[in-house]
Amino acid sequence: MQTRQRVHLIAAARPNFMKIAPLYHALMKEPWCDPQIVHTGQHYDPNMSDAFFRDLRMPAPHHHLGIGSGSHAEQTGGVMIAYEKVCKSAESCPRWIIVVGDVNSTAACALVGAKLGIPVIHLEAGLRSRDRRMPEEINRLVTDAISDVMWTPSPDADENLLREGVSPERIERIGNIMIDSYEMVREQIDADGSRASLGLTSGAYGVVTLHRPSNVDDRTILATLVDQLKAVATRLPLLFALHPRTRKRLEEFGLAAQLKDPNIRITDPLGYIQFMNVVSSARLVITDSGGVQEETTYLGIPCFTLRESTERPITVTQGSNRMVGPAGLLALVIEQLERKSRIGSVPDLWDGRAAERAAAFLRKRALG
């Protein structure tokens, strides 16, 4: 009887959970494969971790490193130390390590694998913002530099890697696995009652998420965003799913009271199904998230990304995403509200079958 090959799927934060779920389910169907989930603990709030495992029908993590919060160095170093122990154990050492996205745990586990000689695959490789002030950009560059295989979501990612000297045989475009997650639970999303329970009318509200330090850690910038959101809310009711970091800063800077507005509904972070139920019927979305740019592009929903750059330019050139600075938000929202037609299109291979292509690639490598 053939021994099943152990494959580690590294997850640390909300976007990671959504990316590994379709791949976990696809690999579970492969008789040669023993997929195991490694949760580093970077996102540990129940609303940003446990809820996603439940919604995406994943089991409890096979390995939980329990690293938690801390500085970039503390998180990266902590993950490396803890994950190395897992990899050096004969009972848990993997044949393959699959890291996803661009969080600290992504780079940390890739480093462990590279130094121990365990093949590393980077899912969502090749994305570049070209802004090295973003810690995520450093993580992307480091991870791609040491990974053995790059699974990319779009042509621009392929071009970035080729430009950086990555050999073509190490690059495999599988498409956008975030779309797999959405399609995997689309029936549950459509049937969910979150939108109704929050009193939202389909197509007549906006959704807001903010969490990046560049937006929430500076009082002046955050105050500007609060003013802009209040102005937007006079034209379109808003649902603000408040990240723990953002809530803390609003209270610390004395800005929380300003968001007590009848047209702004504040909630805790929502589970994946609940969040996508709300997003899928929104008039528009205001965010600084990477994944939300992709989800709104797939759904054709106008998205305003509060950042200077994006590692997902295809969501701007082909999709429904627009980049905007804090002070310019209201003007663009007003312009969008005057539009009636759908904007953007869906990029190639954003079709809900990325995990299927990834599993086929890995099967060929594992058995060939």
What does this protein structure show overall?
The protein has 17 helices and 13 strands. With 368 residues, it is α/β, with parallel strands linked by helices. It folds into two domains: 190 residues, Glycogen Phosphorylase B (Rossmann fold); 146 residues, 3-Layer(aba) Sandwich (Rossmann fold), CATH 3.40.50. The protein has a seven-stranded parallel sheet, with helices on both faces. A six-stranded parallel sheet has the order 10-9-8-11-12-13, with helices on both faces. Strand 1, helix 1 and strand 2 form a beta-alpha-beta unit. Helix 1 packs across helix 17. The protein starts with a strand and ends with a helix.
Q: How many structural domains can be distinguished in the coordinates?
A: 2
Average pLDDT over all residues: 94
Largest sheet: spatial strand order: 3-2-1-4-5-6-7
Gross geometry: globular
